[in-house]
Amino acid sequence: MRLFLVRGFDQTSMTEVAGACGIGRTTLFRYFPSKADLVWRAFDIHLRRLAELLLSQREDLPIATAVHLAVVQAFAEAVDEEQLWRRRFKVQHQTDILRSDLAVRWLAWAQTVADFVAERTGAHADDAVPAAVGGAVQATFAATLRTWFRTEDFSGDVVQRMHDALQPVCAAMDRLLEDHEHECASVNQR
Q1: Burial 150-184 (b: 16+ CB within 10 A, else e)
Q2: 94 close to 4: Cβ distance less than 8 angstroms
Q3: Nearest to 159 by CA among 75, 70, 45, 69
Q4: From the CB of residue 127, how many other CB atoms can be counted at a distance below 10 Å?
Q5: Alpha-carbon span 121 to 111, nearest angstrom
Q6: pLDDT, the chain, mean
Q7: Would you state the pLDDT for residue 149?
Q8: pLDDT band at 153; cut points 50, 70, 90
Q9: Which of 74, 67, 70, 76 is nearest to 171 (CA)?
Q10: For residue 117, which phi and psi values (nearest 5 degrees)?
Q11: 116, 67 contact by CB (below 8 A)
Q12: Which residues contact 22 (CB under 8 A, 6 or more apart)?
């Protein structure tokens, strides 16, 4: 990631990456079939972990509270001391191709949350309420990352900042989900 940040993603070859890592080009391609895979692998792992953590949440928790806990835990597990996650996020914004891939991945991230909400509510993941929860939580998560990305002096615990940013959004989503459940129950009683 340092090499991409210094030289630029497009200007850096896989041969240069392999050399910087002290491995052969063939070995690098065995694990990362493309240069973009070097950037996206951690995002994809994070997304799979988020899905696992969502599914492991207690059934008695309010839905958005469960989302909040899973998102913060997945983020805490992904962030590292060397700020590789932050560097990777910066690289993702360097080139048009990575930015367009990022949009697709953020949609998948929001969909992961919407799928969980739909499962818990009995709705379809594309229904307004699950999609709204997924979109709101994803937007808050990404906005917090963008603040971290553009702020050189982002002191303090970034995981705590993520928790704090998500807290009011998830509380509002819990109220939305409660109202939605009452509305659905009222319609079903008629």
Answers
A1: eeeeeeeebeebbbebbeebbeebbebbeebeeee
A2: yes
A3: 75
A4: 15
A5: 15
A6: 88
A7: 76
A8: low
A9: 67
A10: -60, -45
A11: yes
A12: none
The pTM of this model reads 0.86
Provide the token pair at 23.
Answer: 């491995």
The closest alpha carbon to 167, from 83, 86, 68, 27, belongs to 68
Name the residue with higher pLDDT: 110 or 152. Answer: 110
pLDDT at 121 (0 to 100): 92
Q: What is the band of 185 on the pLDDT scale with cuts at 50, 70, 90?
A: low
pLDDT score for 156: 66
**Structural tokens at position 67:** 């989302």
E strand spans, 14-164 = none
Angstrom distance (rounded) from CA 46 to CA 27: 24
